[in-house]
Amino acid sequence: MTNTEALFTPARIGDLELSHRLVMAPLTRNRAAADGTATELMATHYAQRAGAGLLIAEGTTPNRVGQTYADIPGIYSDSHIAGWRRVTDAVRERGGRMFLQLQHGGRVGHPDNSGLVPVAPSPIALPETIHTASGPQDAVVPRQLTTADIADTVADFVTAAQNALAAGFEGVEIHSANGHLLHQFLSENTNRRTDRYGGSIENRIRFSVEVVTAVADAIGADRVGVRISPRGTFNGIQEGDTETIYEELVTALAGENLAYLHIVFADPKDALFQRIREIWPGVLMANPNLGWGVPLPEDGGRGAAADLVAAGADLVALGRSFISNPDLVERLRVNAPLNRLRDEPLMYVGGADGYTDYPTLAQIEAGERAA
Length: 371
Ligand SMILES: Cc1cc2nc3c(=O)[nH]c(=O)nc-3n(C[C@H](O)[C@H](O)[C@H](O)COP(=O)(O)O)c2cc1C
Fold this sequence. Notes:
Layout: H1 3-7, E1 11-13, E2 16-18, E3 22-24, H2 40-48, E4 54-60, H3 78-93, E5 98-102, H4 111-114, E6 119-120, E7 129-132, E8 135-138, E9 143-144, H5 147-166, E10 171-176, H6 181-186, H7 201-204, H8 206-219, E11 224-228, H9 242-254, E12 260-266, H10 271-279, E13 284-288, H11 302-310, E14 315-318, H12 320-324, H13 328-334, H14 361-365
Bound molecules: flavin mononucleotide (FMN).
């Protein structure tokens, strides 16, 4: 069997049987209602992509202060549960399986988006602008979380995970990547605390470990994945001690029997990727580095996915290729041509344009467009 053929063999996450190894990565698209409720349009979008072995729904905030941008979804109210239930029903009707990514933005947020001053491990502003309804604005200095706030935030993650199951998700992915709150605790340049959540590596991994273990205790470890982005610099992150901190974090989580560990921008040739594969006893999901800010490769990541499987990944997550190809898995299976991703501005604005109007191969052949 070739490495590409291996992509299309069955896999498991906990009790879930997946018919192949391609996962839709979490993709923020700012299509929720103003109060964070998932919309019918989102149900259509995800249902179109139900052919993914697993879909990971976009970064969704576990509480109001964790909201990053305008029109991103939440999972902390009855309306949020009902909105996401419509999405998971639509996906399940098409045979799809879905986890929800729980994303607390920490300092990646703005009072104009959430109505609240963002919170973070330390009062250090994101050195970038934040997109708001009135355009990009300088980030504000976040309020430093007290230890009592940290305990409350862990509890919010637990409630959010329980809400996600009530909304019909199979499980949740805890976002400890890409410069969001959990990553801000891991990284030296965003965590200047002198209490038990800052300083040593043991202290800086504490918040991620507490969130993950509390959520696993509440909903079952086999329903909990974790996303990490070693070496990632999104949102002003400079980790400092990448090798050691991820070795410690992964070791601390290795005994938990989690659903999976998900690595962003995984490079099969990176010694750290190989080391994590050695330490991590469970399902390893890898998101290949296809280049950022550049057009995607013609094959949409098929070759990179096969290389990661050859290097020991159990599952491969793809992002942008799923945006422009609702039937991505079928196209990769038969090596069919792919739709090209249209303009980047369409990624983070409301509406069907660039969201639900990418055609499947069958629709192109029949001369139709997507709904
Ligand atoms: C429009 C867009 C939105 C994204 N939103 C999220 C998100 O909500 N959570 C997250 O962990 N990563 C997010 N990412 C990162 C993707 O999950 C993925 O790691 C990245 O796009 C690289 O994979 P790709 O090359 O297959 O697109 C986003 C990326 C894009 C392009």
